[in-house]
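I am still getting used to backbone structure tokens and would like to learn alongside you. Label the sequence line and the structure token line clearly, so we can match residues to local backbone shapes. Go ahead whenever you are ready, and we will take it from there:
>
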Amino acid sequence: MWHYRRVAAETQHRRKRDTSAPRANASARAHAYTKERILDGSLGAGEVISEGEIAEAIGTSRTPVREAFLRLECEGLLRLYPKRGALVVPISHSEVESVMETRLLIERFALSKVIALGIDLAAPLAQVIARQRELRGGRDRREFVEADRQMHRLIVAATGNEIILQLHDSMRDRQSRIGLIALARQDRRVDEIIEEHAAIAAALGAAEEQRALALLDRHLHATLMLLRGPAYLRDFRIEG
């Protein structure tokens, strides 16, 4: 009798596992699909979306989409309203300022430490800047923004401080949204970013700490000034 109960329990467990795995995969697909479209701006700030829309788009039921929406709410990208849908959370002015301030603190520390340690980043920085030059004429700015983030991450990672790196990585989604907004505000910003990156890399390679810090300050400040522009609120429905 005990043997049969054990077999029955194992069979029931397998059935639960077999049915939960596809739902987990569907939830992951719904999460990735929705998140990508929020980050690239296809789903605009302030737009209301429904579980049904996403379910139909990826060919699944509403249950895994609901689970994906809950994850995105925890990540700060959606705000859920029962029976009404989910709001794509706009980026607030204070959030932009906070992200840029945090980046400045982390990246200034990273530049100084890399120079103090004598770490040679010439080759990897040249590679990522070359990648940005390849992407400069493309219509899809997502890859350019990611290459931009990778350039700065290289320097932070080189410090060997995992806590600092984790903090920097935690801003990835915000950096992507902010970066795309900045590029949409001014086309020539793409070329400016590449040249500013090259100048920072050169100063870093020459161990010119004060020059590198000044260039970084100017680089991040230029992006912040674009985001503070009068069209920022109108074009992207940013919350005050």
Q: What stands out?
A: The beta strands are 48-49, 78-81, 85-88.
